Amino acid sequence: MLQEFKDFIAKGNVMDMAVGIIIGAAFTAIVGSLVSDLINPIISLFLGGIDFSGLYVVLGSGEYASITAAEEAGAAVFAYGRFIMAVINFLIIAWVVFLLVKAVNRAKSAVSAPEKPAPAADPGPSELDILIEIRDALRK
Prior knowledge:
Shape: elongated
Helix content: 55-70%
Order of helices and strands: HHEHEHH
Structural class: mainly alpha
CATH class: Mainly Alpha
Number of domains: 1
Number of helices: 5
């Protein structure tokens, strides 16, 4: 059983998956920064300075200057702006992963494309030519 486990771990698929998970975690941080530092300010500019991550509704009584102040006070907060940001992050990550998979599949198909066999210089007579010759030979 231990040998089977070693064989399983040594397979390329498991190692590829582990590397993919590690790279994916690092990639998530990059996309998070892309969204919060580059995309949100542009969206905010077009929407009149709205910051999605700061959008919230306090469930209960009380008014707070920011979502951070409400959370520090212990108020129940419905942070729908954070959800909007999570959706934007997901869409960007999904798009980039789609482009990466598309590029990898294109590269794989280019490498594994079978070469077309070169046509023979003299393919010889066709079946029809042979049958015509036999017919002519029988007529003589």
